[in-house]
Write a structure and sequence with these properties.
By secondary structure, the protein is mainly alpha-helical. It has one domain. It contains 14 helices and three strands. The longest helix is centred in the last third of the chain and has 34 residues.
């Protein structure tokens, strides 16, 4: 079997393909190193979690391949159904989902025995839907009732449903949508109204202790802004402070060049070195230079997606590519900020690097859609057939 025969079948931006493969390689190296202690505690072979993660990554890369072969205009007709399904899943998660740290985030599929965060699917569905609505409303986008309300209403619903259990994801999603609104020519005044309203709502929830995790949010903020250590109010808060401290030690150990692959010491102390705090382990082993390279990879990914946005002949494809890319890169920046103590502790993972199953798969779908847009940018899209097909799908 000649592998080179399959390489030309990869469509889309080749740089993005190379960046994704690079992230997958870094993920395998980092996860293998970070799970050594976990394998010992769970009495597993040291290769157990590497092989498991390798399977997740293989499915993720296959998902990117098959998704990028689908013409992105097909997602227009699926966008409304996906949004409705996301809303139902979020409601189900709040009521019946698996509870973790006083919040319901996970949904279990009984037959296949797979758990996933409904917010991951909701993020994907929201941006697919927003790209459609923004492209349709460009003629009246400055109007509050005809343009702004139709695009902001689904954002409010999704963020409000995610907020009780996952503040960081709700904030990230809201901020990313504001950026997409600005790119989509929504009035700055309307965007500011949305942003101020959201911040005020969260502030009131924290101030008056509204919600199951309001006390945790408040403690994290107070611990972060104060030079003095606050007394943790619960075991969860103590773990957050412990994680932040151990991450600082890992970064200090790494220095400029790092300790070397597989030589991390803090993986034995960090509670989640393979997921939320994998970036700290990467810096410890590969140094600040390695951490900077990884940050550059994400920024290069965003730049290539912005080029797709600039070249795409259709508004829907342009908004789809830039919306999905911004949320992926913004999540990566937030995770890195938490790892280096620039931000309070959150539960956000590092896209395509942290260990996980469903998170990798949903991220892979997003990347596959971006590559689908990229592959169609270079092809002829101006035929009457494609234009009429697009118009029928958007109506």
């Amino acid at each position: 079997m000649n592998i080179s025969n399959y390489i030309p079948k990869l469509k889309g931006d080749k740089v993005i393909w190379a960046l994704v493969l690079f992230l997958a390689l870094i993920s395998l190296l980092a996860v293998y190193s970070a799970t050594c202690s976990l394998a010992y505690k769970m009495e597993k072979n040291t290769l157990f979690y590497l092989i498991k993660h390798l399977g997740y990554m293989f499915v993720g890369l296959a998902t990117i391949y098959f998704t990028h072969k689908i013409n992105y205009t097909r997602f227009i007709s699926w966008s409304r159904l996906a949004l409705y399904l996301a809303i139902l899943l979020l409601i189900y998660t709040l009521v019946y989902g698996t509870k973790l740290n006083h919040g319901s985030r996970w949904v279990s599929l009984p037959v296949v025995n797979i758990t996933f965060q409904s917010s991951d699917f909701a993020k994907l569905a929201l941006f697919v839907y927003l790209a459609r609505v923004l492209s349709l409303k460009q003629g009246v986008i400055k109007d509050f009732y005809k343009g702004f309300i139709p695009v902001v209403f689904p954002v409010i619903i999704i963020c409000v449903l995610i907020l009780p259990a996952n503040l960081s994801t709700a904030l990230m999603l809201g901020f990313t949508c504001c950026i997409l609104f600005y790119i989509g020519r929504v009035s700055v005044k309307h965007i500011l109204i949305l942003a101020v309203s959201g911040i005020a709502l969260i502030g009131l929830m924290i101030l008056f202790n509204i919600g199951p995790r309001a006390a945790t949010w408040k403690n994290r903020i107070l611990t972060y802004v104060s030079a003095e250590k606050k007394v943790a109010s619960s075991e969860d808060d103590k773990e957050d402070e412990f994680q932040a401290t151990q991450a600082k030690i890992a970064i200090a150990n790494g220095g400029l060049k790092g300790l070397g692959p597989g030589k991390s010491m803090q993986r034995n102390f960090l509670p989640h070195p393979y997921s939320d705090f994998i970036y700290a382990i990467i810096i410890e082993e590969y140094g600040l230079l390695g951490g900077a390279v990884l940050m550059f990879v994400y920024m290069l990914f965003l730049w290539r997606c912005i080029r797709i946005f600039q070249r795409c002949p259709y508004a829907y494809g342009a908004f789809l590519a830039v919306g999905l890319s911004i949320t992926l890169v913004f999540q990566a920046m937030l995770n890195m900020g938490v790892n280096v103590s620039l931000l309070p502790v959150t539960g956000l993972t590092l896209p395509m690097v942290s260990m996980g199953g469903s998170s990798i798969w949903f991220t892979s779908i997003a990347i596959g859609i971006i590559l689908s847009v990229s592959s169609n940018v270079g092809e002829t899209e101006g035929t009457e057939h494609k234009i009429s097909e697009l118009n029928r799908a958007t109506n």
